[in-house]
Amino acid sequence: MLFHDMQNKSETILALATTSILFTIIAVSFFPIDDLKADAQSANATKYNLEPFLSLQGSTYQDIPNNETLSLSNFSISTWFKTNTNYTEPGHIVNKGGMGTDEEGMNLNYGIWINENNAVAGGFEAESGDDFIVNSSKKYNDGNWHNSLLTFNGSSLLLYIDGKLVANQSAITEEPDNTGDQPLRIGANSLDENKFFKGDVDEIRVWDRALNESEANDAYSGNKFNTTGQELYLSYGE
Fold first, then answer.
1. 22 and 79: one domain?
2. Would you state the pLDDT for residue 85?
3. If both were cysteines, with which of 16, 48, 87, 180 could 105 make a disulfide (CB 3.0 to 4.6 Å apart)?
């Protein structure tokens, strides 16, 4: 009798286990495969892809020909960069107008560079030749990838590194000198073939407006960009 009861209980447990397994299989089978793919793509959408990118050797650069859409009064510039070089003079990551003279039409319209202290700097020059430049306090020639975003809204110049505001200048009453015909140059001074950047750059974007703090954070932490006013995008992808 005892054996018979144990046998009945075993059969009941086996039946319940089999039913549970079948229910699981049916539930998974009816879960849309496209939804699984969409979830995976959504999870990966915020991750920055480090490759491919543009490698600059300290003597090479890339030019984007001058055009009126890149000659700006208000602006935002965003770029990823990586370098381990010890700079003794500015190394330009991206700039238009360049530096080296204070003549109207030959001033820096906008730019981001590594300065001689190995910190990140960015800014512009007015037609008068006056400089408006902000600098990070930290060095960034550590061989790691970093995101830099520089914005100017007509009165305030702000520099973000890796999504955080690291330097700013406000109450600016002059505008960038956007009258020059120099190219937008990646990796060297836009005015002359000097002040080279040595390292890697990627995902260069230029807007004709200032991005706000929320957009700056999204650009780094979420790899999400509001493309309204975006005049240039260099992905260096396929």
1. no
2. 98
3. 180
